[in-house]
Amino acid sequence: VGGSVAIFAALRRLALAVPQPAAVRSRPGRVWRWRNLLVSFAHSVLAGLWALFSLWHSPELLSDIQDGYSVSGHLLVCFSSGYFIHDSLDIIFNHQSRSSWEYLVHHAMAISAFVSLIITGRFLVAAVLLLLVEVSNIFLTVRMLLKMSNVPSPALYEANKYINLLVYFAFRLAPQAYLTCYFLRHVELQGQGAFLTANLLLLDAMILMYFSRLLRSDFFPSLRKGSAGRDVDGEKFLID
């Protein structure tokens, strides 16, 4: 986990060297957000592909979600825990806590759950399934980077918009729904099982909230409320 934090700290430094679009450079408040999203994009690519590889390489893990184990899955959970810790520190030290408080709540939930899995070695398969969400985050982050940079290519944004919706269902909503049903039907609601189930249900609510924002923003803009003239330079989230 400590090694992962160091890796993402190094990636953050490398992000400083990435050329910034004029729309980002002209708004100082967007510079931090742009750099933060680049690091997030790197984590999404690495963790998403890693989760797919782990399940492809050891498909038998899916038959034992509670006690199945693989070294690859264990290291993936450590890797993503390091990212969540780094991202939380990045938000706090750059004074973005107020505008990005939802991410801090999400990260606190993820870190606490993942640390319990790392220590006990149980429910690692569930964590790998949840980390399939990073495949969806690849296209979600591209969406936000395109919006920030004001890329003069509506076709690119439109193509990503529909791909993003498809992978949102396949890699975010579907695994989340499957795990929620599994935990409610097969996991004892005591000790670690109760803690993880509560985390999962809270995450369900957050995912559905983000999904409604995505639909309003990209597919039903007439339903957007209160976003006109809003300064969102410092906000990290999926916003209207």
TrEMBL record:
Membrane topology field = Multi-pass membrane protein
Question: What residues does the TLC domain cover?
Answer: 29-223
Record-linked InterPro entries = TLC-dom (IPR006634), TLCD (IPR050846)
Q: What GO CC terms are in its UniProt record?
A: plasma membrane
Q: Where in the cell is it found?
A: Membrane
Chief location bin: membrane
| Source domain of life | Eukaryota
Q: Protein name, please?
A: TLCD1 protein
Coding gene? Tlcd1
